[in-house]
Each structure stands twice: as C-alpha cells, then as structure tokens.
Specification:
37% of the residues lie in helices and 23% in strands.
C-alpha cells in the first residue's frame, strides 16, 4: 500500500510539472503576461469586476491550505495587460465530512482555521468575490465511516442539503470533494 501511495504522489507531481508550462504558454500566447502586484490598495479590493473569464478560456484553481495561508494572497497575482486576477477559483482547504455516531448522521465539520474565514467572510472572502474570483469549500474525509461513497441515498441527500445550507450561509460558490 505504501508503494502505491508513493507512486500516486509521484504521478501527481509529474502531472503538475506537465501542466504548468501550458498555463504559462496560454497566457503568453494572448500577450497577457503574469505579474505580481507589489502592493494591494484597499480601494482595489472593493472594486467589482463583472466577469473574470480570461481570453485563453483557461480557469486556474488555487487550493489554499488555510491553516497557514491567507486566501487574500491570491489577489496579488494579476494578468498584466487585462488586469484580471490570475486565479479564477480559490478552494479553501479544508472542511471535513464527519460522522456523528450518537445521531447516526454525517455533517460538515469546519476546523478552527476554516471557521475563522467563514465567520469573517466579509474580511477574507468578499474581496475575492468582488474581483470575480469564485470561493469554493473543500470537503475532505476525516478517517471515519462518513466517506461520500459510503452514504445511502437518504444520507447523501441529507448531506447535500447541509452542503447547500453551508454555501448559502457563508455565500460560497460551491464545494470541492477531496479524497
């Protein structure tokens, strides 16, 4: 099993290594170079862009480990010619699907870091949305019997409703399932 995990990890790095040049080539083909903003002014954060689609049609996800990274860092990277954000969707890594044995149900569990961002969404998430960046909540299994593949139709519907409620409560654009 350890050997299989090692090979899967290697293949993930290979896939990333092969993908990154194509993302950069696409940006350069459109004569839209990537640059980093050295400062981010508060006036810029509040502005809203109507559409975030790049000419290339390529969408870039930033899966942000929120335990030690501020998701607003994604605002520091824009395309030089258009001024559009480099990142199209920020995935907050990660909430969990957990099993409540006492009540025999699955539920969304937010760790302290994820909950802090959701509770303070006006400060940490709204500036991303104002720039046209979608904010997605990652859902990760938590080493119990609550995995998505283990759910009955009824429990899957119940969990889907909880995910919907979470997205509506915190004005999120969707969920991202991570195994």
């Amino acid at each position: 099993m350890k050997n299989l995990s090692y090979h899967l990890t290697i293949w993930r790095y290979v896939l990333i290594w092969l993908t990154v040049p194509f993302l950069c080539i696409s940006c350069y083909q459109n004569n839209d170079e990537i640059h980093e903003n050295t400062t981010l002014h508060s006036k810029e954060v509040g502005k809203s862009l109507p559409k975030n689609m790049k000419d290339s049609g390529i969408l870039l996800f930033s899966i942000t480990e929120v335990g030690n990274t501020n998701p607003l860092n994604n605002l520091n990277f824009t395309l030089k010619n258009s001024g559009k954000p480099l990142v199209d969707m920020v995935v907050l890594f990660s909430a969990n699907i957990n099993y409540d044995e006492k009540n025999d149900k699955v539920y969304v569990h937010n760790n302290q870091s994820v909950q802090h961002l959701l509770t303070n969404r006006q400060k940490y998430l709204q500036p991303l949305k104002n720039k046209g960046i979608k904010v997605i909540l990652s859902i990760l299994g938590n080493w119990d019997r609550s995995g998505i593949a283990n759910l009955s139709t009824e429990r899957a519907q119940q969990f889907a409703q909880e995910l919907k409620n979470t997205c509506e409560t915190y004005d999120l654009d969707g969920v991202f399932f991570r195994r």
